[in-house]
């Protein structure tokens, strides 16, 4: 058995784990992305140090890091990540210097999508959409996760579904992410006078607070419009939702499936489900990047 130190970098939190080559999480440690005036890179280094200690005698073979944004996977450089304030950050060099281990750096959604693919044995085309602080997608076309010419493919969160709509952190108006990301749901609920610290708190108020109902309906609508486009372009076998917001389960899947079906007038919608790895999808995706960098082929099978 070999293990890697894996970190799924998010706009709000860094999710770390010690993961073995069967995809099992042996230990977990999380850390806020911004803490005590320290930025994401400093907190990432601190978390990797914590994970090294947690791995103990297991002697990790590599570090794997999944990050949002535009990632040059060949050099391990984050070219641009709006939620992290990163531009041309050489994460691989930084972490290899700090740990002395090989470090694989890749796009969080693509890595999680490939981990999902390994776990489900899917070789066809499907779409994996993690919904967290931001929204991205892994577009798996005939078994290959599309990365694009500059590593920027799959920015599903920044597909515009409401032209001239609300401003997105990326600077565009009316992006899917401006309505449906966890951060957007909370921000829009508060803008209506509501009080909530997380999407789960807004979801808990559905059916009780019309402001929660309104922002959730807007989130579902924005996602459905985006997924309508993806369905038309790719004809995927299924659409898999991951990330923290997908933890809402049926409260998200049921209205989203209905809305998508009503938008697709002349074809049936692809099946919608949540990720097999659930909330661990990002961590396992990051672990996959580490194993690949170390030249280890993991055997991720779910029972
Ligand atoms: Zn945007």
TrEMBL record:
Pfam families noted in UniProt: ROK (PF00480)
InterPro entries associated with the record: ATPase_NBD (IPR043129), ROK (IPR000600)
Family classification: Belongs to the ROK (NagC/XylR) family.
Protein name, as recorded: ROK family protein
């Amino acid at each position: 058995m070999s293990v890697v130190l894996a970190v799924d970098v998010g706009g709000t939190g860094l999710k770390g784990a010690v993961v073995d080559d069967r995809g099992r999480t042996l230990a977990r440690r999380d850390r806020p992305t911004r803490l005590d005036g320290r930025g994401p890179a400093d907190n990432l280094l601190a978390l990797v140090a914590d994970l090294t200690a947690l791995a103990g005698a297991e002697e990790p073979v590599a570090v794997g890091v999944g990050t949002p944004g535009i990632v040059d996977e060949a050099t391990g450089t984050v070219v641009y990540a709006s939620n992290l304030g990163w531009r041309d950050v050489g994460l691989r060099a930084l972490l290899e210097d700090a740990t002395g281990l090989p470090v694989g750096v890749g796009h969080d959604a693509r890595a999680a999508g490939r981990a999902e693919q390994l776990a489900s044995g899917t070789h066809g085309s499907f779409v994996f959409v993690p919904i967290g602080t931001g929204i991205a997608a892994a577009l798996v076309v005939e078994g290959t996760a599309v990365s694009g010419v500059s590593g920027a493919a799959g920015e599903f969160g920044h597909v515009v579904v409401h032209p001239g709509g609300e401003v997105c952190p990326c600077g565009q108006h009316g992006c899917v992410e401006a309505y449906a990301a966890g951060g957007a749901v909370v921000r829009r609920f508060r803008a209506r006078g509501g009080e909530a610290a997380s999407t789960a708190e807004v979801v808990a108020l559905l059916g009780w607070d019309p402001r929660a109902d309104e922002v959730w309906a807007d989130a579902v609508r924005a996602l459905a419009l985006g997924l309508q486009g993806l369905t038309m372009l790719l004809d995927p076998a299924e659409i898999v939702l991951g990330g923290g917001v997908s933890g809402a389960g049926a409260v998200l899947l049921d209205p989203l499936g209905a809305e998508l079906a009503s938008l697709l007038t002349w074809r049936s919608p692809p099946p919608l489900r949540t990720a097999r790895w659930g909330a661990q999808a990002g961590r396992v995706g990051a672990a996959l990047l580490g194993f690949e960098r170390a030249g280890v082929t993991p055997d991720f099978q779910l029972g």
